[in-house]
Each structure stands twice: as structure tokens, then as C-alpha cells.
Amino acid sequence: MLLLRIGDKCPEYGGLSEAKEHIDVCYGVLSREWDYSKDEILTFLIQCAEEMPHKIPFYGVLVGLINLEDENLAGKVVDGTQRNLQDALNSGDCNRIRVLMRFVSVLMCSKVILAGSIVEVFETLLSSAATTVDEEAGNPAWQSRADFYITCILSCLPWCGAELTEQVPDEIDRVMAAIQSYLSIRKRTPDIGLQVFESDEDKIINEKDFLEDLWDRVQDLLNNGWKADSVPRPYLQFESQLVVGQSHDFAPVSCPDQPSSLSSLSSVSFGREKHVADLKYPRRLRRLNIFPANKVESIQPIDRFILEEYLLDVLFFFSGCRKECATYMAGLPVPFRYEYLMAETIFSQFIVVTISFFCFMCAASVATSCSIQTLYYTLVIIDLCKALPGAFPSVVAGAVRALFDRIADLDMECRSRLICWFSHHLWAPQRIFVQEVLEKEVRLSYWDKIKQSIDNASSLEQLLPPRGGPCFKFSTEDGKEITERHTLSSELSSMVKGRKTALHGSKDALEVVVQTLLDIGSKSFTHLTTVLERYGQVISGLCSDEEKQVWLINEVSSFWKNSTQMTALTIDRMMAYRLVSNVAIVAWVFSPVNVEQFHLSDRAWEILRNAVNKTYNRISDLRKEISSIEKSVISADESALAAKNELDVAESKLEVVNGEPVQAEKPGRLKRLKAYAEKAREQSVSARESLEAKEALLARALEENKVLFYSLYKNFASVLGERLQQVCVNGKLPSSEPVEVDEMGVDSEEPSKMQLDSENGKPENRASNSYNVGEQEQWCRSTLGYVKAFSREYATEIWPHVEKLSAEVFEDAHPIFKRVVYAGLGMPS
Questions:
Q1: CATH number of the domain bearing residue 314
Q2: SUPFAM superfamilies from the entry (predicted)?
């Protein structure tokens, strides 16, 4: 517990607050435990350094003190750290590489590791990076790995730059020169596909990228004598003791071999390889500059970077314990305030970052993971508001206001994530955004509760979705006229409730059958599942082709027109039971009625996203099953071979009886061995047949996936082509100019606490920005935003089909549509 709590104000240290006192107390306890659990303590110490990196300076000093008493013990820490770093390099574990390099740097400052050894590690990474981006000898598609290695080196320098300059000045100058040389030969690759605000594209293209920006920050730090307020240096208080310790060599590490060169391959192949590299070595932070410069805390550029590292480390390593996460984020070891920077960093993680560093996931788990992470960030923000009640709530409010002011310019995927988060924190303006937030609020609670919560906000009541419930066409309530169809529906309902399956009727009765079955299943999700399981064959028989499946989806949408959630759930269940295909869902989404609503509602997009996720879920599940069966086949083949060999050996044993050769084995044992061999052979055959069946299903699923994306992008190109021609000026969409308007009113007598200005505690008189955008232009912007979002989110599944899509869909498509798709895929246009 002392190792975990070192540096914290906690009961375990008796209220002591000085770092030196903490280290002395912790070291005293550890030294008394050496004889009983030396190996366990060393393992736990390294684990603490890896999983609580904001406390690495304290752990470095502890190892330095251990080194004074027992050099062999400290040597084991160094060797263990080297092995872990090599394992992390081999596996491409970005977080572990970065944290362990920081730990190694701090160990050098505590006189545990030789300075020259650190330089060797830096030069190894530099050599690999330079070779990777070399167009002749390397593979520039993997520049993201090279950039990551350079980022790791630069991020270590605030911790060890001063000591390296003092101990090995020539070597560190050589490293800095090599980094500058690398920056001169690498290609700047602006992430247009990941821009948060659409109007920032030119700015992103022209400004420095993340690595160039970090290099400038380190240069400023160097010019400032390596003085960074955010880097604690507890080893200075023990310098007179640590200096007499014996420093250890840090064994060399090696970088993985670079993938083979792609110089002779097409741009599509290059882009596909680059996408794989970007997934494996993602950029850790994409800054979301929400606040104006006069609001954000005035700190050194390098201190901002280090503080962001602290915050991201805590968010990552404490993702399973949000209260501890909030506590550590509120009490980081820095001498300045950082509420605005903390808010920007948190918002950047759940709004901007597409490939989260929490886990590298396939598209099958994207929706679930996003919802879980949104909940996690929501709870962290709530806990931070409790931990910093005088400062953080107003900062969060300011961040939300700033994002609202630019909501029309916000990337569609970022907007959807903001809606999911904000549905826990209902607030105010911008019509479409608030409409989607209220719809998700109803899902999280219930309609009456949400209606009651906005009674004083008359301008919001009109945006509240209708009370959820089915819209049954053949209901006999409310004194409606009873027609022949109403009678048929009533009879059909009685048959279903009596568990009779002999449903039949003319083509005109199709609507009655579907509406009645939906009405019976409308009572609960369980009722819906039961109806689909029991009468799925009936529905499948009635809607056997794509045209009728589109009609079926339309009937579901009509039945649940007051509940987007139930519409999505019903269609999702129907797809699971293969009552509707993914291509039929795409056709329905792009039907004229839905197309006209693309910029007004998220309903069709949610259903489309569910269909794509479920399609890839099948592929993912089949791949896992095939992998498991392949192992079973190998095991079964080995068992069959072993049984056969044992039988052959037994049958080959002969003995001479009365001058004649006869079987030496007993007949009973031979019989058992034959039975075992036959059973093993049958199991092997069965496993192979199962494997063949699954491989056939996988081939079918992959073909469905290909058809799905072909249909999706063909429809996108079709609906966008005509409208883009109408609104484009000189091949570009007109820029949307913000216009100041009065903020959407909330009829409340008192200002919300979240609306108070952080500086004086008084409400701010302010106006919000609206946008002077025509409806057709807004439709194009929204739809293009979804094109980019889908391309970015499902890039891994789309890349295998890019060549076919490029040749048959993108070739004749509108240039703006093509550029947006390529930006989403991260492919040069």
C-alpha cells in the first residue's frame, strides 16, 4: 500500500506531505521486508512504475536507494525493466514502451543506469525510424511507427535532458541532430479525416503536425535550461547519497524488423498498409482547442505536453476505477492550476480520438465500446466536479457552450459522441443537436420524467420526441371504423395467441400479418423476440426478396414511428434472424423519404450503423470459431495419428507358437486399440467437416460484406452527386459564416450553477453563433459528414474492397465526395 500511495496526502503516511519524507518512510518499510519477499517486492515495484507513471520519479529514487544497499538487487530491477521494454517493442505495446522509457530515464537520474546506456537506446530507435522512412531502403507506409519512436525519445527528454547534457553532452547533441535530420526527411501527413471542425481543413494542412510541435516544445525547453515546472525531481534531495552508488549498464534493445518495402505497389496497397500501421501505432492525443487563449492556463509549452501525458496516463491506467481516476487527476504533482487543460484533454478523448488508446478494437465492438467509454468519461467528469466544486463545473459548462456555438461545423461522428455524453447532462441550444439529446434522454429515463424536467423551458418542449409507443394501423380502440382488414387482424391475433401457425392469405393481407405480429410483440423486448422466433418462417416466406424486405422495414418504421429506439431494436433483431438483409437495410435507408431527413434526424444513420456492425460481428465471430476449430483439427489429427501408430505397433508384435508366428498382443487389447483409432479418425473427420462448413459461412459473410459496402457507397455517390452539383461554387461548398443570434431561451428564473462564469461567479451575458446555411447545403454537409464518419469508423473492413470501389464507384463520383471518402480512409486522394 505504501508503494501505491507514495506522493499522496493519505493516512498511510501519517499526514506527511514532503516527497523526501514519503520516500524515506517507504524505503524504511521495504528494507525491513527484503528478507521475506524480495522478489515479490521487486516485481511489484516495476509494475507500479508501469501502471502509475505519474509517480515514476518516486519509484526511481526508491530503486536508487536500494542500489546503495544491494547492487545486485538494483541490477535485477534494471534487467527486468530491459526485458519488459524489449517485450513491449516486439509486441508493439505503445503505452508500455513509452512508460518504460520514462522509467529508464528516471533510473539514470537516480544514478542506477549509466547515461551512455540511455543514449544507446535512443540511437537504436532513431536508426529504426530513419530506415523506415527511407524510400529506397525502408517502408514509408509505416511512418507512424517511426514517428512513435521519435515521440518516445522526445517525451523522455524533459525527465533526463538536464542530466544527459551534464554527463554526456556530445552524445545528447548527436541525438538532437539525428532527430532534426529525421524531421527533415519524413513526410508531414495532416489528418484531414480526423478534423473536428470542417472549417479547419486549411488550418490543419498548413500548421505543424503533432511531432513537429513536440520538437518545438523540446527546443524551447532546451533553451530554458531543461527547466520544466511539471517534472518533479525528488532525486535532487537525495543527490549526496545517490551519487556514490554503482551505475549499471542497460542491455541493448532491438526494434522489430520493418515490413518489406512497398515501392512497386499501387497507392491503394500503400494506403492499406499505412492504415494497418496507423492502427498499431496510433497517435495518442489529438488536441481539441475549445477555449480561447486568454482562458487557458498560462504555462510553458512543454508543461502542457507533460500535463497531457499525466492526464492520459491516469485515464488509461485507472479506467476500471473512476473515483481513483478523478482523485489522481485532481491532484497531479504540478505547481499550477490546470482545470481548463484537463477539460480539453478529457473532451478530446471521447469526442475526437477515433482509435482509442484504451483498446484496439475491430468494428464489431465499436458501438459497445463507445457507449462504455462515454459512460466512463461521464462518471469521471461528475467525480471531478465533486472533487473541484469551485472550479471545474463552470469550466465544463464553458466547454459545452463553446462546442454548441460551433455545432453546425462539428464532425458528424464527434457530434454523435457529444450527444451520447450530453444525454447525461441536459442543457441548452442548437435545435437538431438538442432534439437528438432529448431522444436519448428518453431512452435513459422515461418520457414523463423528461417532460417534467423541461416544463420551464417552453422552447425545448417542441423538440421533445413523441411519447413512445406503437402505431398499430388496425387497432379497434378509440371508436375507429372496423374494416375487413381490422377483422382479419383480430382473427390473426387470436390465432397467434392460440399458438397456431397455419397463417395464410392473399397478397393484400401481407400488411395485416406484419402489423399484427408487430403489435403482439410490442409489449416488451421478450415478446418481440418470441414472436420473431415463432413466426420468423412466416415473415421470411412473405418477404423473401429484397423489395419486400425493404417494405417490411418500412412497416416496422411506420409501426414504431414514435420510438427510434424500438425501430432500431426491431430491425436489428430481424437482421439477426435473417428476416432482412443488410443490403435491404441500405436500400431502405436511401429511400426518398429517408434521404430527405438525412440532415434532420439520426434515425436512419443509427439503423445503418447497426447493420454494418452486425455484418462484421458475424465475420468476427466466424473467424474466432474457425481459429478454435483449427486448433481442434490439429489436436484431433495428432490424436488420430497417435492412436493409429499405437495400433500399428501392437499389430506388428508377433511371437512364435509351435513354429508359427502369431499376434503377441491379447485380442481384447487389440480390439480396444482399434476402437480408439476408429473413434479418433472419426473425430478428426468431423472436425475437418466442421472447419469446412465454417469456412464456407465465412466466405459467404465476406461476400455479403463486400456487397454491403459496394451498395452503401454507390448509394452515397448517387444521392450526393446531384445535390453537390446544385450547391457547389467553383467546385467547393460555400463556407458557413457564423451569425450572432440570441441564445435559445430557457424560461428559468435563476441561472443554472453550470452557467456561472468561473472568474466572478456571475452569469455571462452572451449570444450564441448560428450559421447562415441553406437547407440543401446543410443536407450536403451533414451527409458528407456521415460519409467521412463511416469511412473512418469502418476503414479496416473497407480497405480490402477499395480497388473495386475506386474503379466502379469513386471513378465517376463527384470530386468532393471522393475527397471526403479518401480523407476518412486516410488515403491520399
A1: 1.25.40.180
A2: ARM repeat (SSF48371)
